[in-house]
Design brief:
This protein has 3 domains: about 180 residues, Neutral Protease, domain 2, CATH 1.10.390; about 180 residues, Immunoglobulin-like (Sandwich), CATH 2.60.40; about 100 residues, Orthogonal Bundle (Neutral Protease, domain 2). About 35% of the residues lie in helices and about 20% in strands. It contains 15 helices and 21 strands. The protein has a 6-stranded mixed sheet. Strands 15-16-17-19-18 form a 5-stranded mixed sheet, covered by helices on one side. Helix 5 packs parallel to helix 6. It starts with a helix and ends in a 10-residue tail after the last helix.
Length: about 475
């Protein structure tokens, strides 16, 4: 038995019990939801939302009031963000609704029930209490959300009440008929929503809308047939024209590589928004990341690739076992793409993927697929479990895919095919495994059982061996770069 076959055989012996996983809803509800965000002026007290909900079945509806969660999964403990809530029926009469407390992941909010006897459609109007967001010190990522006299950034996750469902996954991915429009004042400009009556297929897509207000156009470009524009919010003046130009050129090259695999990001110009915050965050029609500082840190190229891939892998299609698969796979693919393109040193990628990352006792006790990880990625700072170990699991899957297909298919192509199949929805664990078995002829279940369902680091010997094998297959670019 050859060395490669021995490795695969060893993986197949590492069987463990599968963690429980959510299942998708079986039927799409008939209700339609039409949201309008009104921002007449660049002031935090001016933001309001009107939701027109029509339910042909007249069976009543349940909604969750907005609560802060800045990424998938829910990751903040802030309370409801609504004030001035008014609900009226089709005759204009105000409706009295029942409310009850509800925990969604680690977040506390309220669930309201519109009675079945209500005259639909009903209109739910409220103002968004941005002071709650601005004053929340629990969650670092909340510093990204802001609105002042010059610019602002408002993610959909902080704006919209969504239909209540039993589980977090059902809240996100149950099929819906949703439209969104913006009603902006004459002096208010925005990017992040392509146009009025924008259609969304589930609440997840809606919640990942990013409204960037008062953006400054910094650069324009294209790649892979996709035009894009780079905007700035609250520019701190540290990003020179040269650095921005380099970021634009890097993104053009990245899109040349990504679009043939993942498809276009938008039918028109795709917005990329810079802000002083750290890291990046994906969105339904755009993404936001930190301004390029210093001498164009090579990590910026990885973030550009990472967030662009997220447009498909995560927002448009996802795993019911988020977040490890979503973040770990995208983290891995972002680094491999930029390494192949020469935008990041391969030595940096090798160090990242072959080094054990889990050291503290909390992380040592958690498997990537644990439900606790889903709800506490950010509040628990479980980055090593999700991003680092998750990306190493993705590396193992990449090797099995390439080995099974004679290196004709890589993980990015296999995953793009998976996401295309479940575009607008999500897939279960079994569907995930079945796709790889059918599409690529390989069984990834031993890897998931051994490493996604069990805590602890992946052994150094496996990481080093697999990286070397992938390197000889060209997964990280020119094999002579190291």
């Amino acid at each position: 038995m050859g060395r490669d076959a021995s490795f695969v055989a060893a993986l197949s012996l590492w069987l463990a019990s599968c963690a429980p996983h959510d299942s998708p809803s079986s039927a799409a509800p008939s209700a339609s939801l039409s949201y309008t965000v009104r921002i007449p002026a660049m002031h935090e007290d001016s933001v309001s939302v009107a939701l027109v909900a029509d339910n042909p079945g007249k069976s009543g509806m349940r909604f969750l009031l907005p609560f802060v969660y800045s990424d998938n999964p829910v990751d903040s403990l802030a309370g409801p963000l609504v004030r001035g809530l008014v609900i009226t029926d089709s005759t204009g009469a105000e409706i009295t609704v029942d409310t009850s407390g509800r925990m969604v992941g680690p977040s506390r909010t309220q669930e309201l029930t519109i009675p079945s006897g209500a005259a639909f459609p009903v209109t739910i109007s409220y103002r968004v209490d941005l002071d709650v967001i601005f004053s929340d010190s629990v969650n670092g990522p909340l510093s990204l959300v802001f609105l002042n006299g010059q610019s602002g950034f408002l993610p959909g996750s902080h704006l919209f009440m969504v239909p209540a469902e039993p589980s977090l996954a059902d809240i996100w991915r149950t099929p819906r008929t949703i439209t969104l429009s913006l009603d902006l004042g004459k002096t208010v400009s925005a990017v992040g929503v392509p146009g009025n009556n924008q259609i969304y297929r589930n609440a997840y897509e809606l919640l990942f809308v990013q409204i960037a207000l008062g953006p400054e156009l910094l650069a324009q470009g294209s790649g892979g047939g996709q035009s894009f524009a780079m905007y700035g919010l609250d520019n701190d003046g540290q990003s020179s024209a040269g650095r921005l130009a380099q970021a634009r050129e890097s993104f053009s090259v990245i899109l040349d590589n990504l679009v043939p695999v993942w498809g276009l990001l938008a039918h028109d110009t795709y917005p990329v928004v810079y802000h002083r915050t750290a890291g990046g965050r994906e969105g339904a029609h755009s993404f936001i990341l930190k301004y390029p500082h210093q001498d164009h840190d090579s990590t910026l190229s990885m973030v550009l690739a990472h967030e662009a891939i997220h447009h498909v892998l995560g927002v448009r299609a996802g795993d019911w076992d988020d977040p490890w698969w979503k973040e770990g796979t995208t983290y891995y693919l972002g680094f491999t793409v930029t390494s192949r393109l020469g935008l990041i040193p391969k030595t940096k990628v090798r160090e990242l993927f072959t080094r054990q990352q889990i050291f503290n006792e909390t992380e040592k006790a958690l498997a990537p697929s644990d439900a606790y990880v889903r709800c506490h990625l950010y509040t628990g700072r479980l980055y090593n479990v999700v991003y680092h170990k998750g990306s190493q699991i993705a590396m193992l899957m990449d090797y099995l895919v390439r080995r099974a297909t004679g290196n004709s298919v890589s993980l990015d192509k296999a995953t793009a095919s998976l996401c295309a199949r479940y575009d607008g929805s999500a897939f279960t664990r079994n569907q995930f495994i079945k796709h790889f078995r059918t599409y690529n002829g390989c069984d990834i279940s031993p890897i998931l059982k051994r490493f996604a369902d069990r805590p602890g680091n992946i052994p150094d010997a496996i990481l080093t061996d697999v990286f070397s094998k992938l390197d000889t297959l060209g997964a990280f670019g020119d094999i002579h770069q190291l």
